[in-house]
Specification:
The chain is an alpha/beta fold. Helix content is 63%, strand content 8%. The chain contains 21 helices and twelve strands. The strands form three sheets. A six-stranded mixed β-sheet has the order 6-9-10-3-11-12, sandwiched between helices. Strands 2-1-4-5 form a four-stranded antiparallel β-sheet, with helices on one face. Strand 11 and strand 12 form a beta hairpin. The protein is elongated, with a radius of gyration of 34 Å.
């Protein structure tokens, strides 16, 4: 189904409130909404015409005894019915497009903001919450836009029926005018109650989805330490609580649906009884009696639509409020260039320049292969986060503060390669290339540098083989080498790699270290590692203690001059030769996941 909004840019949502957000979704596709309103109104008006035409056929046929009048009005009735059926089909098609546009627009807004939050996303909101917002809440928001079509048409049909009934009898018109709004008023309190129950249900649903994701992601670890039963029991309790909340939502919803059907039926019976008494007394004709019954029966449709629209809007407001709360989250770093940054600072230094982190004292010089070693791996990760502008800091690039440079330019020129970054599902070729177009030679070079040719050979269809979500069909070492190849294919000016060889065996690790250095010759590269095989190939090694640089030099210089460094990289032995001894494999030697 072709949608009007094909642009990847969903626009700027109105964040001033959930109601304004729904209005923004409608305005964003105003031409389609106008068409849906026109078709919905025409369809509703067409329904009201049917009883009028039927009454004319009966009254004119009985009055004159002329079958030609009956045939004429019956023909008109059939023609109007067929035309209204076509209009109804077009209305349904248009409203489906409106709902889909609203849902996908909300999803794009959520995805765009998730990307804007960057590294702060996981700290601010759970993955389950994002999934719930992107699917359940986006769907509820979309359903609320149904009112723009048949909802508006229902209000128009109500007015037309009232006018037609007034032509028959003012008393009947008064009953209808007073009775239909009374039905809506009786359902109104339940709609406000539904908002509260629905909000609590959505909140619990997001938390449970996050819990489920945590369990699935750590299933192997939980199995190993015997924690599966504890987490399963906790999930069971939370799911029971969610079920109870769902029952409360269902109870309110069932009353709303029951009243939306039952009250209009009672109303129809009351109006029909009143009209039948008038017909028996001769106040109205038989045709008018049938018309009144038809008008009232038709009126059940718009009244039910209005009640259903109220339910949809109530749910939509709850969902929109959750979407807006997510959109209010701010990333850890400023998005705009700071004042006084200097000419051209918005795009960063004109040429490769040094990255400097004042907190740790780490400086990454352009064109050099730099390694970072710390007594606590988390300290090294924090340095990379600051140099990659994933956390607020005073880090500079070419003497200019990173947070004063346009974030898109930072992301384009500086790439942080996390050794635990997710691999999304898709053909391996697409997983490696991402949004870029890469030639076969480009792919071959990256795979060679990452020593990942055997990964391709081991898959049934080579580069066209499907990578499962999170790379589940690859081993730990294979995933790590695919991530490295993906980072190399991006060809960043500066590459900041976190433990890129930690899951590899010593032989593969040595090959990766040698090829990575060669491939990145002349470009800026920083790796965090404790592997002697990698450290021995670095131009510069920074040794951190408690998050601060205490020594800088080559690997062999630090081995000779820093006892703490020597103990750290040799795993507590006195072996100082990085190419011999039981620990020559570095971090990879201790990894339970080696290359297959």
């Amino acid at each position: 189904m072709q949608l009007q909004s094909q642009s990847t840019d969903p626009g700027t949502p109105d964040r001033r409130g959930p109601g304004r957000y729904l209005v923004w979704l409608a305005i964003s596709q105003k031409r389609r909404v106008a068409t849906g309103t026109l078709l919905g109104s025409a369809w509703m008006v067409g329904l009201t015409l049917m009883p009028y035409l039927l009454s004319r056929a009966i009254d004119d046929g009985l009055k004159d005894g002329d079958r030609s009048d009956v045939v004429l009005w019956a023909g008109v009735l059939v023609a109007v019915g067929v035309a209204n059926a076509l209009v109804g089909a077009l209305r349904h098609r248009t409203m489906t497009k409106i709902r889909m546009d609203a849902a996908f627009r909300t999803v794009r807004v959520v995805v765009r903001h998730s990307a804007r939050l960057g590294a702060a996303l996981q700290r601010r909101v759970s993955a389950g919450e994002v999934v719930t917002i992107g699917f359940a809440d986006a769907g509820a928001v979309a359903e609320a836009l149904t009112f723009t079509g048949p909802g508006v048409g229902a209000a128009l049909a109500f007015v037309i029926v009232a006018v037609l009934l007034f032509a028959v009898d003012p008393l009947l018109a008064a009953v209808v005018l007073l009775g239909a709004p009374l039905i809506a008023l009786l359902v109104g309190p339940l709609l406000s109650r539904l908002q509260g129950a629905e909000a609590a249900y959505r909140h619990r649903q997001g938390k449970l989805a996050a819990r489920f994701g945590d369990i699935v992601g750590g299933l192997h670890v939980l199995h190993g330490i015997g924690g599966k039963q504890t987490y399963a029991e906790r999930y069971r309790r939370e799911s029971q609580a969610l079920r109870q909340q769902g029952h409360r939502v269902g109870a309110v919803t069932s009353w709303i649906e029951a009243l939306s059907i039952g009250l209009p039926a009672l109303f129809l019976a009351a109006v029909t009884w009143l009209a039948a008494r008038m017909a028996a007394q001769g106040d109205i004709t038989v045709g008018e009696l049938i018309a009144v019954y038809g008008y009232t029966a038709v009126l059940v449709v718009p009244v039910a639509f209005l009640i259903e629209a109220g339910d949809d809007i109530s749910r939509g407001l709850v969902a929109a409020r959750r979407v807006l709360r997510f959109l209010e989250l701010e990333p850890d770093t400023a998005q705009s260039a700071g004042a006084g940054a200097g000419a051209g600072a918005g795009g960063g230094p004109a040429a490769p320049a040094a990255l400097h982190d004042p907190v740790s004292g780490v400086t990454v010089h352009p064109g050099r292969f730099t390694a970072l070693v710390g007594d606590r791996p988390a300290d090294c990760a924090l340095v990379v986060d600051r140099l990659g502008r994933f956390t607020p800091s005073d880090a500079t690039w070419g003497g200019v503060r990173l947070d004063a440079i346009d974030l898109d330019r930072v992301r384009t020129r500086i790439l942080v390669a996390d050794n635990e970054a997710d691999l999304f599902t898709g053909p391996l070729r697409t997983v490696l290339a991402g949004r870029h177009e890469r030639t076969a030679d480009d792919l071959a070079r990256a795979l060679h540098t990452a020593v990942a040719e055997d990964v391709v050979r081991g898959l049934p269809n080579g580069l066209d083989s499907l990578v499962e979500p999170r790379g589940r069909n690859l081993s730990g070492g294979q995933r790590q080498r695919v991530r490295l190849a993906r980072a190399l294919l991006a060809e960043p000016e500066t590459l900041l790699a976190l433990d890129p060889t930690s899951a590899l065996d010593a032989h593969t690790e040595a090959a990766v270290a040698e090829r990575l250095r060669a491939a990145r010759t002349g470009r800026t590269t920083l790796v965090t590692t404790t592997s002697p095989l990698v450290l021995d190939r670095a131009d510069t090694v920074h040794y951190l203690v408690d998050g601060r640089v205490v020594a800088t030099g080559s690997h062999r210089e630090l081995l000779d001059g820093e006892d703490g460094y020597r103990r750290l990289v040799s795993r507590g032995t006195d072996e100082s030769d990085p190419d011999t001894g039981p620990d020559a494999g570095g971090a990879g030697a201790e990894s339970p996941e080696v290359v297959r």
